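Form 7-S
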Amino acid sequence: MNELIIQNEISSRIFTLRGKQVMLDRDLAELYQVETKRLNEQVKRNISRFPEDFMFQLNENELKNWKSQYATSNKEIMGLRKSPFAFTEEGIYMLATVLNSTVAIETNIAIIRTFKKLREFSKHYNALAKQLIEVDSKHTKQYKELKKALDELIATSAVADEKVMGFLK
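Output:
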């Protein structure tokens, strides 16, 4: 499959939760071509490899927000019995050590490359945002200078009008 298509497929499954980019257990299981139940079993057998900053379970509010992004008719999502686990980038790397299939290894390589591309994109985005802020502040300064000049012009115009009116009397 085309690498760009694979990266798009992976990046569409990356969410931001608790300020971290994560992938959910169900999406990872699908990419690794295993059942979510089996993936979670492997994680539980090796739980010491997955501290809180590598993996966490969605709380009620996060689950509610995540569900709201999907149509309510989707039984697979709406019928969840447990909150899914979210894996950070580091947690996904750790999954490679507990899932030893060829598909898991190839998928992990693709996921690592996707996270790398997202970081590169983020750097460019942040640089562009910084430039926009600089342009905005420059224009704000110019606007203030223009406003001051116009205010002075209006003030001198009012003084000139008073003289003319006084002259006509």
